[in-house]
Amino acid sequence: MSPVEPPYTDPEEEVVLSEEQRAFIKKMLERLMELGIGVVYGEEEDTEDVVVDPGDRKELCRAVCCTFVFALTKEEVDKGIIKWNPKRPYFIAKGEDGYCIHLDRTSLMCTIWEDRPARCRKYDCGKDTNIWIDWEKKILNPNAFAHLAK
Fold it and tell me: How far apart are the first and last CA of the chain?
């Protein structure tokens, strides 16, 4: 009997997974994180910060970018300023409404602006078609909030 060959041999080779396989892996990773066995750190490219002036667009988008789920970098976790989800170390902490806990719900401003995560510093919503169909014309993507639980 010959040994079972792995699905790939080169660690740099892209692995193609079915949706079923992806769902299983995601479920297992979430379970490992809940058990405190696994953690995920984010990794950000060394690029310039982006400063977006939303103007009156915040009334339309309602800071939907603050609902995104992402892992913090090791440095951000070590600083201890940004709160993370204890059930999903080290993902940004969210409130029951699905928004970042550092977002002031009234002003829609970040309460830790000077220390906000690198992911937030480098994100440009004006170029994200998942949020804006047309930034200049202020046309919000109708599916921008589809990821939030009803």
Answer: 52
Q: Which two tokens stand for residue 111?
A: 């309460």
HEC letters along 1-54? CCCCCCCCCCCCCCCCCCHHHHHHHHHHHHHHHHCCCCCCCCCCCCCCCCCCCC
92 backbone dihedrals φ, ψ, rounded to 5°: -55, 140
Q: What is the pLDDT of residues 74-103, one digit of tens each?
A: 999 999 999 999 888 889 999 999 999 999
pLDDT of residue 22: 85
Would you say 141 and 104 are in contact if contact means Cβ atoms under 8 Å apart?
no
Q: Which of 107, 77, 105, 109 is nearest to 93 (CA)?
A: 77
pLDDT of 150 reads 59
Q: Which are the contacts of 133, defined by CB distance < 8 A and separation ≥ 6?
A: 139, 140, 141
pLDDT band at residue 29 using 50, 70 and 90 as cut-offs:
confident
Instruction: Take residue 110 and report the two structure tokens written for it.
Output: 């970040």
Query: Quick one: tokens of 44?
Result: 């950000």
Residue ranges per domain, the chain? 19-44+54-150
